[in-house]
Amino acid sequence: MIPYLIRVAIKSVVTLFAIATITFIATRLSGNPIDTFLGDGLTEEGRAELIRYFQLDGSLWQQYLAFLRGAVSGEFGLSFVDRRPVTEVVSDRLWASGQLLLASVGFTLLVAIPLGILGAIYRKSWIGSAVMMVAFAGYAVPSFILAIVMVLVFSYWLNWLPVVGNGSFAHFIMPTIAMSGVLIAALTRFTRNAMLDVLGQDFIRTAQAKGLGEARVVLRHGLGNAGVTVISVIGLQVAGLAAAGSVVVESIFSWPGIGQLLVNAALVRDYPVLQFGVITVAVAVVAINAITDVSYALADPRIRLARS
Questions:
Q1: Measured in Å, how far apart are the chain's first and last C-alpha atoms?
Q2: pLDDT tens across 223-271, in order?
């Protein structure tokens, strides 16, 4: 197990290094940020002073080495716009994004797993067909389309729910549903398929023959053995949700999280904020994937042995 954990750690570090390098290069392709957020009214002396102040006067290679040294030491520089350390700027947004992600994952688990179980048990009835329709609809409708439709219906036409901010429970409803749509579809489908595989096994028929209740057979024996597949799907989908879903949904609903911060930083070429924000999201995604891999290996020793 120890060699497997070491390989997971090395793979995570290499992935983060590659993401940091790509992010650094990509941010430099859009031009000088000083000209973007200060406009044409800046004198040449003032422009040169700001370039030195933000350490943009070195070559690209020198800036890259300084960026790596700062990343290792935890010093990512100052925001071009806020003139504050980017660690403070990003950390101010972390809790808002974390709240939305936790709400989306919790809502997904409450909806998708029961739907998947129902779809497996009643696969030959209209209930199973309805479950699969929900799953296909979730795949077909992107999160930004679902978000826009909900804004039009529940905020603009019916005036039931607020659109901007995160000040109350009502503010969570539409962003949570929008972020959860694709995840619910994926988890419902995979839970149904995993349950179908397990419910056809001999040990399930043996448990039924012993007179165990249907609920106990399905939940304890069925879902318990299908959990390995479900864990992997949850980890992968949550990682994707943290990476892409937050950017889209937070921008639409003006949610004060990291996703909206990244969009604003990209628009004004605030390199330090954009770099640290992307790395923060990347760390979350890589950590989720690593935890999923380890949990998957612990749940199924055959996988651990195969990867050893």
A1: 7
A2: 666 666 676 677 666 766 666 667 788 888 888 888 888 888 888 778 8
Note whether 3 and 308 are within 8 A (CB): yes
- Phi, psi for 85 (deg, rounded to 5): -55, 135
* Closest to 34 in 3D by CA, of 220, 271, 228: 271
Give the chain's length. 308
**From CA 283, how far away is CA 12, in angstroms rounded?**
9
For residue 195, give every residue at least 6 positions away whose Cβ sits within 8 Å of its Cβ, in sequence order, or none: 116, 117, 119, 120, 121, 218, 222, 223, 226
Gap between the Cα atoms of 88 and 168, Å rounded: 24
Longest dimension (CA), the chain: 86
* CA distance readout (Å), 173 to 140, 170, 214: 21, 6, 34
Q: How far apart, in whole angstroms, are the C-alpha atoms of residue 292 and residue 76? A: 29
Asked if 33 and 269 count as a contact pair (C-beta separation under 8 A), the reply is: yes
Torsion (CA) 290, 137, 173, 237 in degrees, nearest 10: 0
pTM assigned to the model:
0.77
